[in-house]
């Protein structure tokens, strides 16, 4: 049977002391976040021993204008999460009265946040249309004075003349399925004279850019989309005038990786062409769910909210067509339970009707196939998190209490759009070849080691230091770190 149950949630419970320790460690880690690799060209290092004061110029050459295009590639080689082809043009002008010959340098490697030092690929440099030869260089900098790899190339800047520098290379993304992030440093351009006259930054996707596949002013947990992003067609754009670039101006873009979003597009076309195909609706609900769930919770911005609604609608359609399919009931239960659990921990309250519906779906799945290890695993997971389920000893099954004794359900928030399915998408493209998006045909088995019976969290958590400035998602990062793929 197809692998229907790949999911990031529900969360695992941990001891209170463990949570507190993780919070403290996360605070420390936050101070050592590394800088990304790709960046603006920069003037040469200061002469040895020099220590210029703020505002001191080392060159009379100004970056008059720059255009950077980061084209996310539809396919990535084996072993790569995703790649982008970067092309950048810099219009430079010497505002002084004398010619300057500088060894311009461009960063080619830096700490990726995990103390690896990946290098950009296929670096090509042209000056006024002619190829420029580069040589490697190394300078100290970054976190803990780790060495930064650079490529240097000589450029002559006659007074009062424009010089065009073009740089292109292949950039590796960072992240974890199904999300990926790309970064580009603007701050290295601050060493040129005055401000950057104008800067146009463009990220181009292989399909329409929208708030479902682009994180707008939010983050999947690594990288984030820089504020001020404008979506137009397949592009995400930023524009600056008279920019004095600092750290906060560095570009970051977080998206659903192409390999995942292509599945969404493929299954949308499938259900449009075959609206009575319950399996296609189930697969669509599953991939919507994957793009709505984070390793540390659920996407909470508008795009994530809509993906949750679309996933819910697709699962319900699948179950209308395949009411006796235990695993689609289980997949739907996981979506609902994940939503309930995330709201409970992130806001302190949730609509318990979601939990009741999840329990109903778990019960149906178990009734249909009580011996399926995937179903048993995930019902056990819910059992640890709620008193709505009782697990009988010696494999005797479960009692779903809320289905036998109706609880008093008092929603802790007003009814939101999250509980109202949104209209399904309209197909406008031809599906890619099935081999590009086919799900695994074998269902992976759950872990053979038994789960530890750990206590449920108490009413409050012991906090340390300045933890209150960190979002609760930090706690949930650890709670969900034992990600089980069914």
Overview of the molecule:
Helix 1 (16-30) packs across helix 9 (473-479) and helix 5 packs parallel to helix 7. Residues 1-37, 45-56 and 407-486 have low confidence and may be disordered. With 486 residues, the chain is α+β, with helices and mostly antiparallel strands. The chain has helices spanning 16-30, 258-273, 278-292, 302-321, 326-347, 352-368, 373-385, 401-404, 473-479; strands at 61-72, 83-94, 100-109, 121-127, 130-131, 135-140, 147-157, 162-172, 174-176, 179-184, 196-204, 230-232, 235-243, 251-256, 293-294, 297-298, 389-391, 398-400. The strands form five sheets. An eight-stranded mixed sheet has the order 5-4-8-2-1-11-13-12, with no helix packed on it. It is built from nine helices and 18 strands. The protein is 27% helix and 24% strand.
Based on DSSP secondary structure assignment, what is the total number of beta strands? 18
Tell me, rounded to a whole number, the average pLDDT.
74
Major beta sheet, strand line-up: 5-4-8-2-1-11-13-12
Taken in chain order, the helices and strands follow as HEEEEEEEEEEEEEEHHEEHHHHEEHH
What is the rounded distance between the termini? 12 Å
- Overall CATH class of the largest domain: Mainly Beta
Residues in helices, as a percent range: 25-40%
Structural class: alpha+beta
Shape: elongated
- State the CATH architecture of the largest domain: Sandwich
Which consecutive residue ranges, at least 5 long each, have pLDDT under 50? Answer: 1-37, 45-56, 407-486
Radius of gyration: 26 Å
The share of residues in extended strands comes to: 15-25%
CATH topology of the largest domain: Immunoglobulin-like
Enumerate how many helices there are, as a single number.
9
Largest sheet, strands/sense/barrel: 8 strands, mixed
Domain unit count:
2
